[in-house]
Amino acid sequence: MPTDHRSPVPARLTVLSGPSGVGKGTVVAEVRRRYPEVWLSVSVTTRARRPGEVDGVHYHFVDGAEFDRLIAEDGLLEWAEYAGNRYGTPAAPVRERLATGAPALLEIELQGARQVRARAPEAQLVFLAPPSWGELERRLAGRGSETRDVQERRLAIAQAELDAAGEFDVVVVNDDVARAADELVSLLAAPSSERTVGASE
């Protein structure tokens, strides 16, 4: 993706999803570091803040009542419950971004990606996959922030998510963060006609 801000890019919504522990946040952070012009939606969540996380940067942290209000007012493009917590994408910032003629990137879970596909069929869905199942297990175990029970629950969910990879337009393997970040940025900038057709199509 050229770093020249004058280069035209399509106003397309791109969704990045994949199993827990695959490195979605790491890849997105690398994209933002190398290509700061890439706009990423900040999700809302009822999950407790982890050490080092900043409200409004990593997530908008809200309580259950505020999340209920956003749902009732149709303020979320998508939302899902995952591992006992709820996550959602505020709709207004995404619509405002696309209205300027620039692309927008969402990093969300599988349930949310399916909702976006239903509500915005023109969106590009990208699945981030691990190099292997063993590597995914290692990454989840290495987090250190969750109990073994939570890790096992996440692994069970991750297996179901991996099985859904065929629903996505493109699969990117996260075997190298820099390479995966470059591939994601190229997908953000590519015309719709250059999209890779997924196995489900």
Write a compact overview of the structure shown.
ATP binds at residues 18-25. By secondary structure, this protein is α/β, with parallel strands linked by helices.
Summarize the structure in words.
The chain is α/β, with parallel strands linked by helices and 201 residues long. It has one domain (13-194): Rossmann fold. The chain has 7 helices and 8 strands. The strands form 2 sheets. Strands 6-1-7-8 form a 4-stranded parallel sheet, sandwiched between helices. Helix 1 packs across helix 7 (177-189). The protein is globular, with a radius of gyration of 16 Å. Belongs to the guanylate kinase family.
Structural class: alpha/beta
Q: What is the CATH superfamily classification?
A: P-loop containing nucleotide triphosphate hydrolases
Low-confidence stretches: 1-9, 193-201
Largest sheet: 4 strands, parallel
> What series of H and E elements makes up the topology?
EHEEHEEHEHEHHEH
The global form is globular
Assigned CATH architecture: 3-Layer(aba) Sandwich
| CATH C-level category | Alpha Beta
Main sheet: strand order: 6-1-7-8
Strand fraction equals: 15-25%
Distance between the termini: 27 Å
Q: How many β strands by DSSP?
A: 8
Keywords: ATP-binding, Cytoplasm, Kinase, Nucleotide-binding, Transferase
EC number: 2.7.4.8
Binding site for ATP: 18-25
Function: Essential for recycling GMP and indirectly, cGMP.
